[in-house]
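hi! just following up on the protien thing from before. the input was this:
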Amino acid sequence: MNNIKVKGERLKVKGILIFLSILVMCSCALDEAKWATDDVAITMKVGAVSAGFIECQFSTSRDAYYLIDCVPASSEYNPYDYQKQFMTLAVDSAYIKYLQWRYWWLEAGESNVAPFSSHSLQYGSVDKMFTNLVPDSTYWVFAFVVNPETLKPAGKLYLQTVHTSDTSIYDVHFDYRVRDVYDYIYPINDKDGSINYYFPYLAATRDSADLTDIYQKTPEDYFTELFLLYSEYDLNELVRYGVHVTKNDGYNSDEEFIVGHTYYTAIVSYDGFMGNNVIYKFKWTGESCDLYFTDEDNIVDLGEDE
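and the predicted 3d structure came back as:
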């Protein structure tokens, strides 16, 4: 289990590294951007709502920094009666998470770490997916303007109450392709065969030699433990949507494809709970490799335990 945890942490680190330079560049641009705190209206539109996620669109009437979040609703507390307190606590919570994130990177020796304004606040129009939610539960989705210099709330609170469904609103299966060093995951709507761009899922690829030699587990047992481990992390960094493409070179991915090696790729839906699990097995034959897998190629039901 400890070895799996190391793998999971490596995956998280590599994912953040890919975006860190982008965040730094964005922070420079945002620091120079004009921003307002007065007379800023926020438009919040709730889109798809399922068992484990809420999709929302946000925009502002003037250029401004603003905080968005989704928290469990309380029947004993009305945020509008305590707007200032509610917004201050939300900023403090976001800042605590930011300090933990910044401390981690500074301790690792990284000098160019994005400021709070670009890491934790929004700017401009945003399409946000709130994931890792509990089915049949009530949440508050909210937004408000923040002064990026004083880190204090400004203006009014915008809040909507949203209730998640008890089951997923989608029936989705996963097709999978390996072409050259790239692999592609396609979440397909069962109803019409179209790509589903909102459905959340988790995925991982592992060398079969690692599973049997290092972890000494069946593919199904290994990936079950791995995805449960993922739930300990901030799943906003791990959950995928739509068509996902990975370059398996060991830098942009957790695995580097090696000619002649056999791999397993596991994919599970994450809409309130883990399900629809598939595991595809393939041998990578080099840059000319071009394979396509559907549900019929899923080895989970076959009980294979290589």
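Residues 11-32, 302-306 have pLDDT under 50 and may be disordered.
The first strand starts at residue 42 and ends at 49.
cheers
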